[in-house]
Specification:
Order of helices and strands: EEEEHEHEHHEEHHHHHH
Helix content: 25-40%
Shape: globular
Low-confidence stretches: 333-340, 343-347
Strand content: 5-15%
Distance between the termini: 18 Å
Radius of gyration: 21 Å
Oligomer: single chain
Largest sheet: 6 strands, mixed
Length: 347
């Protein structure tokens, strides 16, 4: 676990735990049959998490966006290998990676992370069996959203349709009135989504995946005549509100404010009055990151057991950094080549 706040927890630790890692499961239940053992269920699982590199931002500066630096070179991709091995064990193959970091910037900021991430995935794939190879895709949502006659949602739904054909969706066996399979169908693999914060853009991308998944879930259950949900339907609006609340909860915990850029922003349907709200959320996030995140991070460290008070230990508030708390083996173990292994290997 690598829990913490926005600027104080970035990237990954040596164990392969990444910052702001959240697994989201979308469950659909046919309430017509209330018996749980014999009920009709469907679920879809997706993951978000920070880029698994050893990177950070200098919070000592007063800039709204502190500069990004990769503070440790991991030539064998040890930490990232541990991270993706864990995903393979938990979800199986394929692992589809959707990187939403910016590619077109006037000043180099988060665009420096994308090429390193792609290089890291290519390095891991060298030692992986073809069936377990990681599939990396990138999409510059911020750049696409600036086009007057285009928006990022179209490309997100193209990716979502392709991804769902790869991973599938879990279904329980069918009943006489449903179209489902005669035996359970399992989701194999998952989609891992990230941007620089894994908040605003990531939440919109996960909504696109969820909308495509829900259409397939309702179609197989016999609710829809085709696997498509119109934008102006009540179902689409309820799902959008659900993912807005979902994103707000994670943004408050990790970033200190609610979502700044919402789903409607990337659909080009946001009202002009929402710009004032976006500015207030940006100010709230900036204030939290500068003045209250340190105390929140210390609370996380105590609550989750990373720091255990002791009479002879250094007080938490006197520590210059909590790096040793989250990387206890970093100084004692040498870096070794790491291989992405199949889920059943037990590595």
């Amino acid at each position: 676990m690598y829990a913490g706040t926005r600027f104080l927890k970035r990237g990954t630790n040596f164990e392969g735990d990444v910052a702001n890692e959240v697994e989201t499961e979308q469950i659909v239940f046919d309430s017509d049959r209330a018996d749980l053992p014999d009920g009709r269920f469907s679920s879809f699982v997706q993951v978000r998490g920070s880029i698994p590199l050893m990177w950070s931002q200098d919070v000592s500066t007063r800039a709204p966006r502190p500069p990004i630096s990769i503070y440790l070179n991991d030539p064998y991709a040890t930490a990232a290998g541990r991270h993706f091995n864990r995903l393979l064990k938990r979800h199986g193959s394929p692992i589809l990676i959707l990187d939403l970091t910016k590619r077109n910037e006037t000043r180099n900021f988060e665009s420096s992370l994308g090429p390193h991430f792609r290089q890291l995935v290519n390095q891991l794939n060298i030692s992986a069996l073809p069936y377990f190879a990681l599939d990396y895709r990138s999409l510059d949502m911020a750049h696409l959203n600036k086009r007057p006659k285009d928006n990022a949602m179209k490309y997100l739904f193209l990716f979502s349709t392709w991804a769902l054909k790869k991973t599938g969706v879990f279904f329980t066996p069918s009943t006489p009135r449903t179209r489902g399979p005669a035996t359970p169908v399992h989701q194999t693999g998952t989609v891992r989504v990230n941007c620089v914060d894994c908040l605003d853009r990531t939440n919109t991308a996960q909504f696109a995946l969820a909308k495509c998944a829900l259409a397939n879930q309702l179609y197989v259950m016999g609710v829809l005549t085709e696997p498509h949900i119109p934008w102006d339907s009540d179902c689409s609006r309820v799902l959008e509100d659900l993912y807005e609340d979902h994103g707000d909860t994670m943004a408050l915990q990790y970033g200190g404010s609610q979502l700044v850029h919402r789903i409607q922003t990337y659909r080009h349907t946001a009202k002009w009055s929402s710009h004032g709200s976006d500015m207030m959320q940006s100010l709230s996030r900036y204030y939290s990151n500068r003045f209250s995140d340190l105390e929140k991070q210390q609370s996380f460290n105590v609550f989750l057991g990373f720091y255990v008070p002791h009479r002879e230990s250094t007080p938490l508030w006197e520590m210059s950094s909590d790096y040793a708390l989250h990387n206890p083996r970093m100084t004692s173990l040498p870096l070794q080549p790491y291989v992405v292994m199949p889920p059943h290997s037990g590595v």
